[in-house]
């Protein structure tokens, strides 16, 4: 519990940090043929992500492997903060954690900014603790950008893609009422938003027709030793709390 609270505190970047950060370039133009795309089919609708392997090769490869493994099928968006972010990628519909692969090194210093619609790796206090969790920025969250490698506080969060279709679905998810549920004291959407399936565009026929169902998902059998990070407990605290790997 102490580690969870500490992680939440360490990642609460001061609003003043935004003013000190230089302007960051926007995400690369969409539509490039070499950019893989992933479609997520959720209980609130579908949305499509375009990924940037030339900017975040480790983050993109990690995310694609989870998609191809069926890891995200049947997981939920467990943290929704309207006007801030939507986060998911670890918890099943019963809000228990799935086993993940080893953490990946942070690529937050890739020049991409946490602008509205971008997708980034969620992590704990350690900059290099990201695994399967990701979040979608609902607004321009430049205070989550890389500043320096001095500490987890200044490392920021690695952007590796952007929503190119279905941002209205993400906004719909963000507008849902939230409540305390399972291990979380708040921010869990009501009703739960479930990722029924996720697939890489162009690879839909790489597996049998029923392999993308939630029942067929086979989580990666690897270690999961990150302590849950405690979410914000008050509505007033939500924008001050940063994404973290729960």
Low-confidence stretches: 1-26, 29-33, 206-240
Secondary-structure-derived class: alpha+beta
Mean pLDDT: 79
Number of helices: 5
Order of helices and strands: HHEEHEEEEEHEHEEE
Give the tally of β-strands: 11
Shape: globular
Could you estimate the helical fraction of the residues in percent?
Answer: 10-25%
Give the distance, in angstroms, between the N- and C-terminal Cα atoms: 12 Å
Q: How many strands, what sense, and barrel or not for the largest sheet?
A: 9 strands, antiparallel
Provide keyphrases for this structure:
disordered N terminus, alpha+beta, nine-stranded antiparallel β-sheet, 5 helices, 246 residues
Description:
- The chain has 246 residues and is of the alpha+beta class.
- It contains 5 helices and 11 strands, in the order H-H-E-E-H-E-E-E-E-E-H-E-H-E-E-E.
- The chain has helices at residues 2-10, 16-20, 57-68, 152-155, 167-174; strands at 37-42, 45-51, 75-76, 79-81, 85-88, 118-121, 134-137, 159-165, 178-181, 184-189, 194-200.
- The strands form 2 sheets. A 9-stranded antiparallel sheet has the order 3-11-1-2-8-6-7-5-4.
- A hairpin with a 3-residue loop joins strand 4 and strand 5.
- The longest helix has 12 residues, at 57-68.
